[in-house]
Amino acid sequence: MASVSDAELKNMTQDERARALGMTTEQLTGKQLYVEFDPDAEERFTYPWAPEVDFNKRTELDCDGKTTTEVNSSIRDLMAKGYGTIVLHNPRGMHSLGVGILSKLNLIIEGSTGYFTVGLLDGPNVRITGRVGWSCGENMMSGTIMIEKNAGSTFGAAIRGGDLVCRGSVGSRTGIDQKGGTIIVGGDTGALSGFMMQRGRMVVCGNAGKNLGDSMYDGTIFVGGDIKSLGVDAVEAELSDLDKAWLTRKLTQYGLMPDKGVDHFTKVVAGKQLWNYDNLEPSEKKLIL
Amino acid sequence: MAGTQYRGSEIKDVDQFLNDSDGLESEREKEIGQHIGYRYDVNLVPDYKRITPFLSKYMEVMGWDDLNWLEDVHMGYEEGAAAVFDRNNNGWVRVPESVDLPDNQQDRDMIAREFLIKFQMSDRHPLVSLRKAYMKF
Amino acid sequence: MKSKKADTEYALRYVISHDGDTSKMAAHIEEGEGVEIMSMGSGLELIKDLGDADDVAALYGLNDFQGTHGIGHTRMATESDVDIRSAHPYWAFPYNDVSVVHNGQITNYWIMRRTMERNGHRFMSNCDSELLAVYTAHNLSKGISLEDSLRQSIGEIDGVFTYLVATKDQLGMAKDTMAAKPLVLYESDDLIAMASEEVAIRAILPEEIDTTDPYDEEVRVWQA
């Protein structure tokens, strides 16, 4: 790869930048990429480009009269200045607040938000004192999100990691396409929760709607209340001691441990009678991992 | 236990995929010449008694009470070598042969988690260049 | 018959007193060249136009309206024309005091439309949402309660939908079996507010309130 300075990159188009950095399709086609790397070279816990933030450095931001883009840009600017705790006020149902934050941060949202709240998150700890709309935490990679009230449908759609917690009830299709991580619901969840779930864990302390875990490939769903019906290829499994210990730890951590413990939870897993993985080409299988 | 094994390729031994790099067990796998499913138990939850000092520090720095997303990270095996799947570049990262593998999956998982964090946070990670090339704002 | 102040050159509002058959009267009015009744009601009034919601509201003085309940809609046209006829709320000629707003796609629209047409109903547009208004008006005219009509629709209407119905003295909602279309509900002792998005409710209730998402096959009816 040719050496290119940042100044030179800045003056290039995206296509030129990609080519200058050796990112053409042809060069990425090889099965293996050899990267020299020393695991003990430097102790880092955040991405190399991530701003250094201090949780004890706190600031407030009023969303009133601002667009989503303005608020989200302000969050990035404040992080660049080292603020590690940011409190947002008056969100009033705004969509896409706090999306795409890829480093450590304490984000507190005082109030309720709209669709796609804190989606594409990778690292932050978020607390929302109100309610959230559809697709909260979608595609989350890591971090924690705690919602004090209710959440809309497709809660935690396609999350890959981290803990997404709603103290109240959530809408339908919770954790649709979940690929990892943990979703915890203090109340009830609607129909088709865990639809096409691939891995990860979902915990519903209340009741679950119809077709729970429909077409799930893998992963585990725990339900404390009633299940209206199981979806296609979702089956009940035995709750193991390891499951109980894990449930107890997680629910206690988020203050959602039921008074009667966790023994009453129903565990739902994939029956794996619908699996079609063996029809996939090896490269496609890798994409699913 | 239901939900922790894979149809056609049950994981019976911690070294199963080291000893048999193909990992082909079922008739279907042999027919297509391809291992079906993951090369580790995706539903295995971590044993926190085995956590490493590095991972404890990572949790502290990030402000987490547990391993968070790393609960889903396990030591897997690719072509007979220990490897960890890196979701940030959608591929396996081989663990160097110089690393001694413990005799149980839980300890191996902790090594895999530590190794993955170190690689992802390194400026040698492919995401660094990808970001330079494709970041829009 | 007296005319209220005309807000535009093309939409006129009249207050009419009459005895007898409303449908005959409506048909008689439409005998005039270029005349089309956009809505008719003794308790409800429908306002439809093209343009920004704020502009339409200002043009027709919606802020001065007095009443117990109202429903509104801004439409992103996907499958039928952008014109006043295809705008919500829908009503069903000549049944007064039925209006519907809908979010979704009705997949058995043509089958249901032909069924309704065979029952003598008229459609003013090619928008699938109109079916819900005609369907509801048809049921109400047969003496079926609004709540039963809404429940029945979940089984009889195919597709994805969340819709609201306002009549002279009731407000109702229904959500399809997949719960595929959003609705946020706020309910207090003296106010019901529903919207596809939280942000719409927060625009009128900026203080912290508790809202919920109705589930699949949920039907609710409130009395004005």
Structure description:
The complex is a heterotrimer of chains A (289), B (137) and C (224). Chain A has 289 residues and is of the alpha/beta class. Chain A has one domain (55-288): Glutamate synthase, alpha subunit, C-terminal domain (Pectate Lyase C-like), CATH 2.160.20.60. Chain A is 17% helix and 22% strand. Chain A contains 6 helices and 11 strands. An 11-stranded mixed sheet of chain A has the order 1-2-3-4-5-6-7-8-9-11-10, with helices on one face. In chain A, 48% of the residues are buried. Mean pLDDT of chain A is 91; it is low at 281-289. Chain B has 137 residues and is an alpha+beta fold. Chain B is 33% helix and 9% strand. Chain B contains 5 helices and 3 strands. Chain B has a 3-stranded antiparallel sheet, covered by helices on one side. Chain C is α+β, with helices and mostly antiparallel strands and 224 residues long. Chain C has a domain at 68-223: Glutamine Phosphoribosylpyrophosphate, subunit 1, domain 1 (4-Layer Sandwich), CATH 3.60.20.10. Chain C has 6 helices and 9 strands, in the order ββααββαααββββαβ. In chain C, the strands form 3 sheets. Chain C has a 5-stranded antiparallel sheet. The longest helix of chain C is centred in the middle third of the chain and has 13 residues, at 129-141. Chain C starts with a strand and ends with a strand. The model of chain C has no long low-confidence stretch (mean pLDDT 91). Chains A and B meet through α2, β5, β7, β8 and α5 of A and α2, α3, α4 and α5 of B.
Q: Could you say which overall geometry of chain A the principal axes of the C-alpha atoms support? A: globular
Major sheet characteristics of chain B: 3 strands, antiparallel
Whole-number radius of gyration of chain B?
A: 16 Å
Note the beta-strand portion of chain B: 5-15%
Order of helices and strands of chain A: HHHEHEEEEEEEEEHEH
The strands making up the biggest β-sheet of chain A line up spatially as: 1-2-3-4-5-6-7-8-9-11-10
The CATH homologous superfamily of chain A is called Glutamate synthase, alpha subunit, C-terminal domain
Number of helices of chain A: 6
Q: Helix amount of chain A, in percent?
A: 10-25%
Q: What is the class of chain A in the CATH system?
A: Mainly Beta
Distance between the termini of chain A: 29 Å
Relative strand content of chain A = 15-25%
Q: Which chain pair has the greatest contact?
A: A-B, 69 and 56 residues
